[in-house]
Specification:
mainly alpha, 15 helices, transmembrane, transmembrane helix
Length: 355
């Protein structure tokens, strides 16, 4: 299974040669459709849209919405950020379909957390793709789509937590203080993660102060460390030979930690400004690694579900599974309200600056 995940790296990362032909697709569109303008340099867009060490490949602001939709087939510095998740989503669904088809799973309450994990990943991919595709339209659009992106991240965090709790956790860990308050804690920290990211985005302007990073990193890090705790416990206390799924969990942690590095640090573009504007800059690598993280999680969850599905309801009880899964849409709606409130607050702040 680990070979499958590693092979997906070449599938998710579309080759440079393929993207080199994308502008021709835009040129072949019907003349009645609005055509995206050529990309411009960093000096030709407001500072809000500029990224460190990325000097070219920016889409001009205030174009027609259709232009940004059609820029899906244009070569610019957000292309791989969009396509990396657009391609990961069908891969995730194909693996889902393959597992259910080959092993003959049937839908019941024990598989519900696994279904919600898939849904959470797809929501995260969708929000991220929309954010990177449309954020260049205007300052208002930039803030709104990234607020929604933070909603997707929080929902995905909780979807992962459901899978870790019901399929990966060990009895000893569930009896600990972490296990007893795990679902409550991950839901709360997911909400705080969304709130912290929205607050940091709406309150602070470039040049960004240290407080912005603190608002983003602390709640998100706490959410991750709590969410991954049942996996770490199992990796440290169970033989990997006895449970092959632990190899996939080790991979998911490795991929995620590497993705966090590329998310936090502008590597490799900081060493070669302007050389990785279109392909290969740090945020694109972050997206690819995050997709591999999700695929690794899916493989691990399916192995664990196949091994324990007859006992899941007996171990946790139907009511706990139902309540945990009902909390999923509650968290999603709560995070959505945070995003909408942040957008209104941001609009008021912008109006205040203008006045």
């Amino acid at each position: 299974m680990s070979g499958f995940v590693l092979q997906r790296l070449t599938t998710i990362t579309v080759s440079v040669k393929q993207f080199g032909r994308i502008p021709n697709l835009v040129q072949r569109l019907p003349s009645s459709l609005p055509s995206p303008k050529p990309t411009v340099s960093a000096s030709q867009v407001p500072s809000l849209f500029r990224e460190p060490y990325i000097l070219t490949g920016y889409r001009p602001i205030h174009q027609n919405w259709y232009c940004y939709l059609l820029s899906l087939f244009q070569k610019h510095n957000e292309s791989l950020n969009v396509w990396s998740h657009l391609l990961a989503a069908p891969l995730l669904l194909l693996r889902w379909w393959s597992h259910f088809g080959n092993l003959g799973y049937h839908l019941d309450i024990s598989v519900l957390p696994l279904c919600l994990f898939i849904v959470s990943a797809l929501i995260c991919y969708f929000c991220s793709s929309v954010a990177h595709l449309f954020q260049s339209h205007s300052e208002h659009a930039h803030y709104y789509v990234f607020f929604m992106d933070y909603v997707g991240v929080a929902v995905y965090q909780y979807g992962c937590a459901l899978g870790h709790y019901f399929y990966t956790s060990a009895p000893g860990w569930r009896a600990s203080i972490f296990g007893q308050y795990f679902l409550h804690g991950t839901a709360f920290l997911g909400l705080m993660s969304s709130l912290g990211c929205c607050l940091a985005k709406s309150r602070y302007r470039k040049p960004y102060p240290l407080q912005r990073k603190i608002c983003q990193i602390i709640p998100s890090s706490l959410a991750y460390f709590l969410g991954i705790s049942p996996v770490v416990h199992r990796l440290l206390t169970v033989s990997w030979e006895e449970e092959p799924s632990l190899n996939m969990h080790a991979l998911q942690i490795l991929f995620f930690l590497c993705s966090a590095l590329f998310f936090s640090c502008p590597i490799p573009e900081c060493f070669f400004p302007g050389k990785f504007d279109i392909f290969g800059h740090g945020h694109q690598i972050f997206h690819v690694l995050l997709s591999l993280t999700t695929l690794s999680q899916l493989e691990a969850f399916f192995q664990e579900y196949a091994r324990n599905r007859e006992n899941i309801v007996d171990i946790f009880g139907e009511s706990q599974i139902w309540w945990a899964c009902v909390s999923f849409p509650v968290l999603a709606i709560s995070c959505l309200l945070v995003a909408v409130t942040s957008m209104k607050s941001n609009d008021k702040n912008s109006l205040g600056v203008i006045l």
